[in-house]
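Case study 2.
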Amino acid sequence: MTVITLSGYRKTVKWIRAFFFFGLFAAAGLLLLLGIGLLSMKLLGKPEVAVPQSTLYFASDGQVIGENHAGEKRYWVSLDEVSPHLVEATLAVEDKKFFEHHGFDIKRIAGAALADIKAMAMVQGASTITQQYARNLYLTHDKTWKRKILEAVYTLRIEMSYSKEEILEGYLNTIYYGHGAYGIEAASQFYFGKKASELTLAEASMLAGIPKGPSIYSPLASLSKAKERQGVILREMEKGGAITSAQRQSAYATALHVVGEHPHEDAETAPYFRNAVQRILADKLGMDEQTIALGGLRIYTTLNTEHQKAAEEAVKQVISEESDIQPAFVAISPNTHYVTALVGGKDFTESSYNRAVQAVRQPGSTFKPLLYYAALENGFTPATRLKSEKTTFEYDNGHGIYKPSNFNHRYADEDITMEQALAVSDNIYAVKTNLFLKPETLVDTAKEFGISTPLKPVPSLALGTSGVRVLDMVNAYATIANGGQYTEPVFITRVEDVDGNVIYEHAADEEPRFDKKQTAVLTHMMTGMFDETLSSYASVTGASIAKNMTRPYAGKSGSTAYDYWMIGFTPQLAAGIWTGYDNGQEITKAEEKGYAKKVWVQFMEQAHTGQPVKYFPKPKGVLALDVNPENGKLATEHCPVSRKMYFVEGTEPEEYCTDHLPEEKEMKKQKNEDSWLKRLLPFY
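Prediction:
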């Protein structure tokens, strides 16, 4: 039994009194601080509702080539001009107690805080509409405590200064709905081609789900995810009594026609190029969509407006409007790897799918230069001979059989040089080379050249049967043109924030991945596709456009039943184009098969107008020798055809061609006559 003494009792009373007064003073202090804080906020007045600044895109010459739609694509509407369905859907999914709280939902905050404490990180949000509005107007979307505190301050100021209706109206007019649509009116026009006041329940519930993640829940990004999100919103509306079960089911079952087009679309420069720039800002520089679109950024790009104009004109003039063939075109400056022009399709307003950076298609024979670089590194020379004949290849220890064929089934039926094999695009030579090196060698070499798509180490890889991206292929050719100096394609040189601070600047980081001498040899080999002295059993593949060329070019064409390519370069510029159907349809019309080469040569000639004619460099240690291209021997004055070939010093042929000497001709003639007589003897 505990006995409480009088002195003990007095001490207990004393401590209780002390705690009481301490608590009283603390509460009074907190109330005083809160009062001062609220008074200060009141004295500050209404926080300004500032319209975010547009992001501007600049070409390499400083010309503005695009502007994110801060004005044209945000159409402010009053709350009574918004469909009640949209208002109810937004409240149901974003803030059910919006009209009851004073900027903060204490129950949601407590739940989120508990989740954050358990995870030891900010994993769950509990933002009300007012908090989101404050964040959209004044703050970043970073999950930091500093931002949370500032957000709370701005939330209180907004709640003290504006009515609930004004806050909701502002929120609906500033939230981002994806695809450049800011605010509900722009979103309604873009997705459904109608005013926000005309939105049906089905349309409103679809739109209300997009702001959570425009790149995820937009019906143009993923219809399945958009429908899933719509279902969540309709169920929340039903739970809150805004709609009935029958209305929910009807709305969800309604098939919606998504327009996906802004009214009065501006004809801005290089939309596919800017689309690629935006992807880089998001994926590589880590910027969120709203900052990119309305952060007041100044983005300085590598675009050459003259090159872009030449590319777009070539596509428009060559590819028939009636044709469904789509192009993907890229031009890159070899010295810097700057992307100077890009076309991702015939018409951005009809299809924003960027084929130049997104599509993965088989490159056909444009893949062969990568193979022949690997061959040069492994002992081959332009004069190395292999037999061109109809061949069945066995691989994988006899478990695999591959039967390639040459174009139109034309074979030399004798040994040919690698120089000629590349010029006429002999498939048998290529597959033999690939198997000799082992297909894994080609896979590794292609990756070194920047090919980022998966490649299968099979014999047919030499003929370009694994899908690649146009951007990667053109950059690989630019690497060859640059003497083996590799870097990733560059789209952006500098990014400044709204205050002019540089937040990103490109730093040149070229890497000498390939041998300068061997790339010079390969480059000269690649000029052979335009040299008709290399035609024999088959024509060189560039013969049809050689007459249109006014300067030296190196390149390679390629084709499959579904894809036609042409990639090539000068010392100043590399460019490449793919043409084909989006649905993988076979290309059967002769005219459509010629689109790629015609667009390429027209662009290259136009892009080089006024530029000096430059010849490909021959580094020290590389020899240029006259060679008979048919037998790979040093040519003499008696050879009917010869071509200048490049060799790394020490690998050049030493034997002179004697096939065409006068005495050799007589000997061959006599030998043929003797053989003819021998064949006749049995008949006598």
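Residues 676-684 have pLDDT under 50 and may be disordered.
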